């Protein structure tokens, strides 16, 4: 079996525009409103749209892989923008679709900057000599003392609760 041709600009353009139209469904968590079946249907629609441009008969998996490649490159370019390399040498080049992908996912996306609270990122390192200095009113980011503790931050909106674990 021979290798398929690289994605052409038109195919990538259709992939990006169709993905943007279906962004909410393709990125939503599963639940009552969004099911696996609905997501599969949207990916199939996306593949059909890409295949309508060129008769490559690309599979859903190939389309997903291309999206992941575009997203990965955009994340790398975004990181290079936020943390430019110092020293000599040429400036790193960005992918041709980076700005479009960043526009689709949003530059404030947890995909790019992480999750500020909740889940695994709720565990943060804080330093304290005296546990009594930490109250529910203490901002964990501003604790600057000695000692090392894991801090679990509440995921409830507007909550300042957290638990210190030795």
From TrEMBL:
Species this protein is from: Tegillarca granosa
Region called Disordered, residue ranges: 74-97, 120-145
InterPro entries per UniProt: Myb_DNA-bind_5
One Pfam family in the UniProt entry: Myb_DNA-bind_5
Highest taxon above the source species: Eukaryota
Residue ranges occupied by any Myb/SANT-like DNA-binding domain in the UniProt entry: 3-77
Protein name: Myb/SANT-like DNA-binding domain-containing protein
Biased composition (Low complexity): 133-144
